[in-house]
Specification:
410 residues; single chain; disordered N terminus; 5-stranded antiparallel beta sheet; Rossmann fold; 9 helices
Length: 410
């Protein structure tokens, strides 16, 4: 809030500061600077007082029906003009300012209305610097305008905030008529925003039902994924059991070897008389152990060789597959070339047949020419000579052409 010299305090943001109407209704170019308190607009009937209020409503987003003056927005354009422009400037200062870093101390909302075929109208937003502001490129200008109006709590469609002549006439007519309670209550709902709240509630319910359907779809998807997870978990547990069995096998084998060793030691300690035999048996056992170790080592080497051969074999298979793919591509290219060549040969053969037919026709004309031109003048004889020359040229072309065809065919 700020105070003037008389101690009165005024709002620092969201109040009208300036209005400009260009080609709007009966105003060619009207500009008004508002004071920060109450403003009175006076004038004769038809001088355009109501047009000022309608211009503010239209600039904030009112449609043709809400203005009550015309069936479409083109009716708001001044006669014989192609467009109308309305600009409203709002104060944007203090702690309740709307993004002052972007707009500065004032926000100018400009709406342009054009006739059909005269371009596209719409809204523009300007800051204190008179430059157009696009704060968020992911948000449309209309949505940004709605945010500004919501931030400053400007309810241009509320009849208690913006009461046009048509709305006041409708209200007074309902007062006089009997049974106008329903219309009054509708007026009350619009004034208290109950209608907007009901519409928003319907939108929320529609969105909620849509989200419920999405939730059901996600629940089914979750169920399917949970089943897949359980199957994978069972496989993992089986793999773990196999690993446990392998560890138990190794443990049992170790215990078996230790048991064998203990048995041999017991036999060795049982009798001193069989010491030599025990030593022999011990040597044999050691030899067997060494043999088994050698076998294990040989088996390990053999496994490594098999793994190496498997890798080499896989590499050869991949290389062979790659060569096969290239060979298939080459065969396909050759087939395409052969098809194109066959089409070309067929075209040449057709031309050859046509030339042969032309030759036959010319030969027939030449055979008939001596009989028909026996008594003709020298000019016709010259024409016959020309025909003979053309015939010879065609024969030469025909003779050369089949040679080309035969060569290309081979």
């Amino acid at each position: 809030m700020s105070e003037d010299g008389d101690g009165d305090s005024f709002a620092e943001s969201g109040i009208l500061k300036r209005l400009q109407l260009i080609n709007f209704l009966n105003h060619a170019n009207l500009e008004i600077d508002f004071c920060p308190n109450v403003n009175f607009i006076i004038g004769k009937n038809g001088s355009g007082k109501s047009a000022v209020l309608l211009g503010i409503c239209a600039c904030f987003g009112a449609n043709a029906k809400q203005t009550g003056r015309s069936g479409n927005l083109e009716g708001l354009i001044r006669d014989q003009e192609a467009f109308a422009r309305v600009s409203v400037t709002l104060k944007n200062e203090g702690q309740f300012a709307f993004y002052p870093a972007c707009y500065g101390t004032e926000i100018t909302i400009q709406r342009e209305i054009r006739r059909k075929g005269q371009g596209v109208g719409g809204w523009k937003l300007f800051g204190e610097s008179k430059r157009e502001v696009k704060r968020d490129r992911n948000v449309t200008i209309r949505d940004e305008l709605k945010r500004i109006l919501h931030h400053f709590n400007i309810q241009y469609d509320n009849p208690c905030v913006m009461m046009t002549q048509d709305v006041s006439k409708e209200f007074l007519a309902n007062q006089k008529e009997n049974g106008g309670a329903a219309a009054k209550f509708a007026f009350f709902e619009r004034a208290t925003l109950l209608t907007d709240m009901r519409n928003k509630n319907a939108e929320i319910e529609a969105a909620s039902s849509k989200m419920e359907k999405q939730k059901e779809g996600l629940a089914e998807e979750f169920k399917a994924k949970k089943e897949a997870y359980n199957k994978l978990k069972e496989k993992f547990e089986k793999a773990q059991k196999i690993g446990d069995l392998a560890a138990k096998k190794a443990e049992i084998r170790s215990k078996y070897l230790w048991a064998k060793a203990a048995e041999l030691e017991d036999q060795f300690d049982a009798s001193e008389l069989g010491l030599n035999k025990c030593k022999e048996k011990h040597d044999k056992v050691m030899e067997r152990i060494k043999a088994r170790e050698a076998e294990v080592e040989a088996s390990a080497n053999e496994a490594k060789q098999i793994e190496s051969l498997s890798l080499e074999l896989n590499a050869i298979v991949r290389e062979h597959d790659s060569k096969c793919e290239k060979e298939k591509e080459n065969q396909l290219k050759v087939k395409r070339k052969r098809d194109a060549f066959e089409k070309e040969v067929e075209t040449k053969n057709r031309k050859c047949r046509r030339c042969n037919e032309d030759v036959k026709k010319l030969e027939q004309k030449v055979k008939r020419a001596p009989r028909d031109l026996a008594g003709e003048e020298k000019a016709r004889q010259d024409k016959l000579n020309v025909l003979h020359a053309r015939l010879e040229n065609l024969k030469l072309k025909v003779i050369d052409f089949p040679c080309f065809v035969s060569l290309t065919t081979n």
